[in-house]
User: Which sequence fits this backbone?
């Protein structure tokens, strides 16, 4: 009998802890990208929104592909990502209500400051061609994220067929922006990154920006409400309130205000 | 070496500053992993006793199964629990995904086999020693199992601590089912993973040192409690 007494007290403690751990706030779940989270943008933006609306925002930071898949399963109310083609597909499939553009920043090519492949310049396609020709170490996200999708687009546009030229120099890491940058830093490799994560990244080693300022490196972020017709539990009103605020004058100003070391990370460009 | 000493100094500073956010993260880690350990003890210990004292078809394969499940990869557990709790999954209507409850469930699945397998080992040894005695008293197997669990309660703390250690140290499962949401489901291990991602390796390592210190304190507490209880009731 004592054993049952012991187990019963364990069970009661367990249940108390479980129920105590459940918060009952008003909140929405936003599936977003590692770049918005790890660049620190959300840490700056969300307290402002929470203060004006009383709605808490819970951010799950993943690659764009994963974030959209999560929303397809109904596990988020809003997606905030950066892969236009994938976003438009998401809306066309009926999982999203409407895609709205919010802000942009740009990709930068990071590489060893010594630049062994002579890839430096303003032309991303030329830079990639030189890296492939020199077979200089290149780290790829390889995780279906927005940055990975962009990288593959650039290789294609540069006329480099990865299927045939891919060798030991091309490291497919299957990891988030930060871990991939850590890998690149330790290998002294080239890597495509979003500027926000790079500016907030501390373990740079010998790396620096090699290519920037190419118009092709434009990186647009969009926001989409998950379709309540597909998933009835989606918090439509609160999710829409978040989207409306992001594209409002106040939200756009808050985005513009976010700076690291005096440098603006994201540029608001919402179209109503 | 420079990194290591810098990290330890940083860990000391973080603790000394009594940062409220850090305290909340440590507290959530403990709450989740202690809850999972309590639930796993409730489930795993009777199961372990059943596997050692009981005689039923399929017992041996079950023993092997539970021994094998001690090596369950956390990320697989996370994925399974995610698919169960996802809105599109069978338990989706409860909205448990991305809550501490989901993390408790995942860790419970992860460590119940560990606690069951270790309990089975302890009780099997006890059973060998006391079988004749219990039989001569006319105890049923169920009764014997209960008695042996109670008898071995001090040795079984090790099984509980092994489960707790595994739960509080894993990152793969809680990352998937918790989502590492700031202020809601961010625990020690997912914070360490996040800071590593940001390239802030000294901070990540400092948090790791704090996690190890917390685990050591819990183990020391359990050890002292056990000694005290053994003296009092042993």
Assistant:
């Amino acid at each position: 009998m004592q054993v049952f007494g012991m187990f019963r007290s364990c069970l009661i403690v367990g249940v108390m802890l479980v129920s105590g751990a459940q918060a009952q706030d008003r909140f929405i779940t936003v599936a977003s990208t590692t770049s918005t989270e790890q660049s620190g943008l959300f840490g700056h933006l969300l307290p402002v929104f929470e203060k004006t609306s009383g709605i808490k925002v819970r951010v799950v930071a993943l690659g764009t592909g994963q974030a959209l898949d999560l929303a397809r399963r109904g596990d988020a109310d809003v997606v905030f990502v950066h892969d236009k083609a994938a976003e438009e597909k998401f809306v066309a499939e009926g999982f999203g209500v409407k895609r709205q553009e919010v802000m942009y920043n740009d990709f930068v090519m990071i590489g060893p400051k010594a630049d062994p492949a002579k890839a430096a310049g303003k032309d991303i396609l030329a830079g990639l061609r030189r890296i492939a020709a020199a077979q200089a170490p290149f780290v790829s996200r390889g995780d279906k994220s927005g940055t990975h999708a962009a990288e593959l687009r650039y290789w294609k546009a540069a006329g480099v067929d990865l299927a045939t030229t891919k060798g030991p120099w091309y490291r497919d890491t299957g990891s988030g922006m930060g871990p991939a940058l850590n890998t690149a830093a330790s290998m002294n490799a080239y890597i495509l990154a979003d500027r926000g994560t790079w500016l907030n990244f501390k373990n740079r080693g010998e790396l620096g920006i090699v290519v920037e300022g190419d118009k092709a490196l434009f990186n647009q972020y969009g926001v989409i409400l998950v379709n309540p017709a597909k998933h009835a539990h989606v918090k439509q009103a609160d999710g829409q309130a978040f989207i409306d605020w992001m594209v409002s004058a106040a939200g756009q100003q808050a985005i513009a205000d976010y700076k690291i070391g005096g440098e603006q990370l994201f540029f608001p460009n919402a179209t109503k | 070496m420079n990194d290591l000493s810098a990290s330890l100094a940083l860990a000391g500073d973080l603790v000394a500053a009594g940062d409220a956010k850090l305290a909340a993260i440590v507290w959530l880690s403990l709450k989740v992993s202690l809850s999972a350990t309590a639930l796993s003890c409730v489930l795993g210990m009777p199961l372990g006793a059943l596997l050692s004292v009981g005689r039923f078809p399929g017992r041996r394969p079950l023993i092997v199964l539970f021994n094998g499940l001690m090596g369950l990869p956390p990320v697989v557990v996370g994925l399974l629990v995610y698919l169960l709790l996802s809105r599109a999954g069978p338990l989706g209507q409860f909205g448990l995904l991305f809550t501490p409850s989901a993390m408790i469930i995942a860790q419970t699945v992860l460590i119940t086999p560990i606690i069951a397998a270790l309990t089975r080992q302890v009780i099997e040894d006890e059973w060998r020693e006391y079988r004749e005695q219990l039989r001569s008293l006319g105890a049923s197997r169920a009764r014997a199992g209960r008695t042996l669990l109670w008898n071995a309660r001090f040795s079984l703390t090790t099984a509980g601590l092994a489960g707790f250690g595994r739960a509080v140290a894993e990152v793969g499962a809680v990352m998937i089912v918790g989502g590492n949401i700031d202020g809601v489901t961010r625990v020690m291990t997912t914070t360490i993973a996040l800071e590593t991602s940001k390239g802030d390796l000294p901070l990540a390592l400092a948090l790791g040192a704090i996690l190890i210190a917390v685990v050591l304190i819990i183990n020391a507490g359990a050890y002292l409690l056990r000694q005290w209880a053994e003296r009092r009731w042993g």
The radius of gyration of chain B is 20 Å. The interface with chain A takes residues 28, 31-32, 34-35, 38-39, 41-42, 45-46, 86-89, 92-93, 95, 97-101, 104, 146, 149-150, 153, 179-182, 184, 194, 196-201 of chain B (CB under 8 Å).
